[in-house]
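User: Hey, quick favor. My workstation is busy. Could you predict this chain's structure for me?
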Amino acid sequence: MKIATYNIWNNETNLLVRKPHILREIMECDADVIALQEVRDKILAQELARNANYPTCYCQCFPDEEECLCIMSRLPVAASGSWMEECNAIYAVFQTEEKRFSIINAHLPWDSAAEREKQIVAIILRAEQLPEGNIYLLGDFNCSPTSDVQRFLMGECLLNHQEAKPRWYDLAVSFAERKEMQPYATLDFRKNPNLKGNSIENSERFDRILIRNPYPRKFPELIRVTLFGQYMDEESGLCASDHYGVLAELK
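Assistant: No problem, here it is.
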């Protein structure tokens, strides 16, 4: 099974040029389930799903906005829902012949650490209500892997007097440790042409895929974690988005 997350950048900058590149990246990624952030509107979400051959496209808009979060799937969806009134997240529950699992697509606020912490706690509490089975948390966390948001998910600190229990595991970190390397940045101010010219901000790994500890069940086998969306179009000189996507393959 392949799952992916991709912030496609809701920005008018060269959007008409970037849109076919976004579609190409999604199609070449070829994930069974992909979570998209910063989708301009539901029309774009449905267009991408149709052209990339995803029969299921569940999307919900932020309150009083056209921008939406989207989960596109080639696997059967048993249930889906939105937590948008409380936190920037939607979810889908999948039921195959052998397994049941859930995907949470989250896009935490970029402009407030307090609001990010409030929302991640709300997401984790909501996740406890999902059906039994593996739970994956995907999206743009808008904070570094050393932030209190990530430490909270790893069970290393409390937020708002709440504890993430069971803890969550970052699949890119797990894969990188096996390969004796460091996980790659997904917001790349040095190489992504959409971000070049900013000599102050540091490249960061904002986009992540996590799995909740399934104990006493076994973890799935992690095959690989890779980036996508790094292709630079020769004609426009642009990447599809200001973020790179993350793809995880599991058995």
